[in-house]
User: Fold this.
Amino acid sequence: MSTVHQQDLRDRPARLTVGVVGAGRVGPALAASLQLAGHRPVAVSGVSDASRRRAETLLPGVPLVPPAEVLQRADLVLLTVPDDVLPALVAGLAETGAVRPGQLLVHTSGRYGAKVLDPALRAGALPLALHPAMTFTGTAVDVQRLAGCSFGVTAPEELRLAAQALVIEMGGEPEWISEENRPLYHAALALGANHLVTLVAQAMELLRTAGVEAPDRMLGPLLGAALDNALRSGDAALTGPVARGDAGTVAAHITELRRHAPATVAGYVAMARATADRALAHGLLKPELAEDLLGALADGTQGTQGTQGAQGTQGTDGTDGAPGLKGDEGTDGTNGTEGNDR
Assistant:
């Protein structure tokens, strides 16, 4: 970092004007939390009606303007767009001269570190990667949830104090992530949070099919206890038929899933195999019971055409699975950084 950039940072007033590029679920919430800390949101950009409504709700009175104008007005700019959009956005803003020397440019992508902002750095901006490890709804509750939320932070050494201060002002806790570890960090969050939503939604559907009137009420205490136990004890918290080696129960599960919800068989088998591996490795599953259990899982896979199809999709995930996900992220992300939600 040049001496000029360091001087700009030292001379910066304590309270900043804040702009948001990408008025999705994340950007307005972060700007609103910064406003509570005394900073002043001055501009926001958004394309869809949903993004405009979010901006008006969380940042009332803040004008909606094009991205370049956001940068003209703000000392601190939040780039809250989908991961795949971010590199081209940064390059375009730098090439068109929208970036101002000494301007704090913050992106909220989990995937990228600070290097994605290099074009803006060369234009004189101060680059920060601040990724909130939180799922966002696009409502005022998000601002409250930032209290105690961890942020994955990547920044040049000269800007670590500035990054830390911003995270703390938003109510968060900074967790320093190296540039090279950003993709792994983000994969871990997606594995835990995004897949949890899928598992819970599938479980609720199955309970409804089984005649349970309030599956959310039934699952709430169970899943809350399981999550708490897992966070406290890790693999030692594993319970259930897979960890016990109850091959007959697992086989019965697969039979029922094949009958009532064949699309869930592939996920059940994959997670059961992963659970069995971890239970074996930690001495919870007896080796003499593992053979029959794995046999039941193999039979379940072979006996379901839908399962085989799902495995085929999994094998070509980059071709078949990714476009659908990117399509969802593109819609929500342009409105609101769905890709940053993890």
